[in-house]
Task: structure prediction
Amino acid sequence: MSELLAIGVSHKTAPVEVRERLALTDRRAAEFLRELRGAADVQEAVAISTCNRTELYLVVGDPVEAESTALTMLSRQAGIRPTALASAIYAHRNCEAARHLYRVTAGLESMIVGENEIQGQVKRAYDAALAKETTGPLTNRLFKAAIETGKRVRTQTAIGERQLTLPAVAVALARELLDELRSREVVILGTGETSELTARALADSGVRAVFVATRRRDRAIGLARRYGGTSVNFDELPQALERADIVVAATASPHLLIEAAALEEVMARREQQPMLVIDLAVPRDVDPASTGIAGVSLYDIDDLQAVIARNRKVRQAEARRAEGIIEEEIQQFASWLGSLEVLPTLAALRSRANEIAAQVVRENAGKWESASPRDLERVGALAAAVVNRLLHDPTVRMKELRDDRVHARMAIVRELFGLEAARAVPEAVDEHPEPLAEVRELRSRRR
Result:
């Protein structure tokens, strides 16, 4: 039987220096899933990689083998020994894996509880897997249900109202450290969604924004027009840094864009005039060694935790309501997932019981010397009736199971009765089988 497996790391289990080494670009995610499917019994796969997490959602034949293979491949990706990475990795199976994805999509597992960006990131990850044809019936059902659950949480609770975003938290940190932002020059490195959210958070602060294009200059020009700033090419970054009071870096580059040596040269030309650098990127855009440069105050995404913690209590009540919605939705998924297991397990159990009953009858066929053909038919019918009577109550109860433990219970049933082994590996025919039950020869009744 196939199982659902979720394996990954997040801001709760690993610092940014580990997360950035596990981050998967869209292209790398597709390659990683292709390699994983070739190395283990992985039938379906979706990868989610954001600044706060890298997670794999897999449908596998052997979850132990798949988890071990995934850990080895993630370790190779990060350049970290598997034993060193293991403490940061979490793994969930079946309904627990689904519950985790529901919580992620609803924003309950985010650094900023209830943030909206994660739902779009989950949908884009699913769409990318669809395009690469790595999804299947189970992951299709799972991700569609998770996305709908995220929408329901945001519609029926206030968890996303007046919501802080990471860029908004970065701006709050800048205000906290610099007091007044008016007339400050802010260099925003990157032109993606995070950069635009940063510009939006700064819109009423009276700053002078400079958008630095790493790839698309037209996008930088558009942002500059929309938010009243200017735009420059990436080649002009050193000159922009010489004038900057604040730098916010938020690109999707897999490599450092601001090296410590280059930043040190910039600071020398500006005579160590203080510069606040906030790096929101994972992998990081700014060399961590820059913290040692005089005049540079460098904060990465993990350093924003203190600001975030002050806003977390406000959302606790709404988070509890969101968890209630998730539990309602997970029960529906659990019922569906369980239905995939119950009927095949019941069929296998009944087939196995009928085989045993028929084998016992065959083994004792020569011991009923006085039995007529009709008597033998009655013996066969009696054996079948015993099987039906014995399995009736378990069948009814198994069909009525509706909670999130159905999959685990079916696994126990299959293990107890050896159903998987019997189905996966045809048993060899033993010329001298040991009797499964002993039926003594019937004596003729005295008249």
